[in-house]
Amino acid sequence: MLQSSTYLLVNFFAVIICFIASFDKRVQFYKYFGIFLISSTIVAIPFIAWDVWFTDMGVWWFNTDYTTGLIIAGLPIEEWMFFYCIPFACIFTYYCLDRFFDLSWANVFNNVIVFITTIVCVVAALLYHDKIYTFVTALVTLGAILYLHFIAKRDWLGQASFVFIILMIPFFLVNGVLTGSGIETPIVNYNSQHFLNVRMLTVPIEDAVYGYSQFMLNVYFFTLLKKKYSDKKEIKSALTE
Amino acid sequence: MNFLIVIVVFIAMEGATWVIHKYVMHGFLWVLHRDHHDHSTDGPLERNDLFFVIFAIPAILLFYLGVQQGVNYLFYIGLGITLYGMAYFMVHDIFIHQRAKVIKKTENPYLLAIRRAHKQHHKHLGKEEGECFGFLWVPIKYFKMYFNKNK
Description:
Pathway (chain A): Carotenoid biosynthesis
Radius of gyration of chain A: 19 Å
Protein name (chain A): Lycopene cyclase domain-containing protein
Helix content of chain A: 55-70%
Number of domains of chain A: 1
Strand content of chain B: under 5%
Structural class of chain A: mainly alpha
Pfam families (chain A): Lycopene_cyc
Strand content of chain A: 5-15%
Structural class of chain B: mainly alpha
Shape of chain A: globular
Mean pLDDT of chain B: 71
Number of helices of chain B: 6
Order of helices and strands of chain A: HHEEEHHHHEEEH
GO molecular function (chain A): intramolecular lyase activity; lycopene beta cyclase activity
Oligomer: heterodimer
Low-confidence stretches of chain B: none
Largest sheet of chain A: 2 strands, antiparallel
Membrane topology (chain A): Multi-pass membrane protein
Largest sheet of chain B: none
Shape of chain B: globular
Number of strands of chain B: 0
Number of strands of chain A: 6
Number of domains of chain B: 1
């Protein structure tokens, strides 16, 4: 019984502390729950589609001993929840750190970050175009970073990247368990033909890179909608005065 | 040996930067570089920033070919170019143009000389007039200026 809830518990523990802390009066993140739901859904749609596609192709598969058994479009329900639980913890962390600390010093590295990401992703995509997980991850990350820097012209790439580095600690805990750290067999298994097989502990390096692009896009849509929401509120209060 | 290649490329990049800066950026691609001088573009990003995508291309090709040939000298040339690029951003964005308010009050003569020379370069808003196209290496007179002052 407990074993079949493993993945569910991973999601639960990822989210629970952040969820409770959202109601702290210094934080008041609960005000943005609606905005978070919309922004994370926008990001989740393409990423879940990617997940469904790769699961269907056998790039990775799930050990159903660790899941409750409800499967939608080839993905266990826990995997669907993953696309809300993990972004929630990440966005909550970003929101708090940004609110209580001045992280703008990290933004001087924007150009360097984009420069290095471009080189690494293009070289990886060229070299490993036959390994589909590596290839798609490199292209998605490249696209996300170039879009944010040159088209959306966001100036927070440095500070978001800094927060992502901090988030690597819980990331390793969560993804570690999913990929087999501390449990008998992995919950998520990978076909070694389709990725580099470079693992940090048990976590494939592609997971960290893809997590980076997913995180950056979540920050983008969340901050975008949050700003729209607060602008609207300002106009409203100005009109009623 | 590989380490040597990286160092030599890094140094050679200073020369390449001078040539590219003087004859390409202030030449036929002035259209991209102009807003770095006259600030004609609004916002945090300059059209000039597109140059680093252009400069990433040779590094990408060298890394790719180098790895394909079993991580040979081409890879290390690419590494030298990349490291120079990183040094460029660090010094140019952070120190000279003060995108971050750090190391503002330095008394290091080398850093002061770089900043002075770059200012000299920026004094000219037009394409044709120009001086001090180099970057990490600047004319001796600027070094002298600060070394003498310290005496």
